[in-house]
Amino acid sequence: MIASELRAWHSLWLWITRRRHGVPEGATAVPYSREQSTTLMMWLFAMVVETVGVDLLLLSVGVPGWLRYLVLALDVYGVLFAVTFLAACVTRPHVVTDRELRVRFGPYADLRIPIGTISAVRQVRSFDDRIAFGGEKVSVAVSSQTNVVVELAEPVDFVRPLGKPGRAVSVRFFADDPAAAVRSLRAAGAGAALPLVHRLDPGDGDGVPLLDEIGGK
User: Is the dihedral of CA 8, 14, 19, 21 positive or negative?
Assistant: First the structure.
């Protein structure tokens, strides 16, 4: 939890300086924050109003100073938590390189999937999904939505948000532009130099894998 908190504060600095984390030169950033930004901004506005309102109420009824300042500190921390979370979602997008797919959710989730382990990718549309790391089918939803599914030819190990190990054979996640995310993954898969290349289907997104052996037909 402390590590997540530090990553969130670092993200706020990146946001202020207009930089992104973990997006090397030549990589494709896949944002996912657009769908939840409006809700988070409304939530943040309500928290600011609540902070001011509660402080004025406690002042008017004459509560002890230590209690008023304690409540104020907790409310201010809540506001800062919302700001840093929003900053982390903006500055830590999903990333596609020629080596890996990196699926992230703010400062909490970070799955690194080698391109060579991807057997299929397809665009979907689910409105009742959630964030789940408990089984081998990992879901990283935003506002209960996912729109890209990545199937793996072999399990990939990862670290869950609270530090426990996990293993994934299928990953669902949300992208602001799912079509662009799928195209990037297919391009990366087609260029992977492996003895047995799991080429991603160049068709309409049905996720059927094409297996091409180097030097064969």
Answer: negative
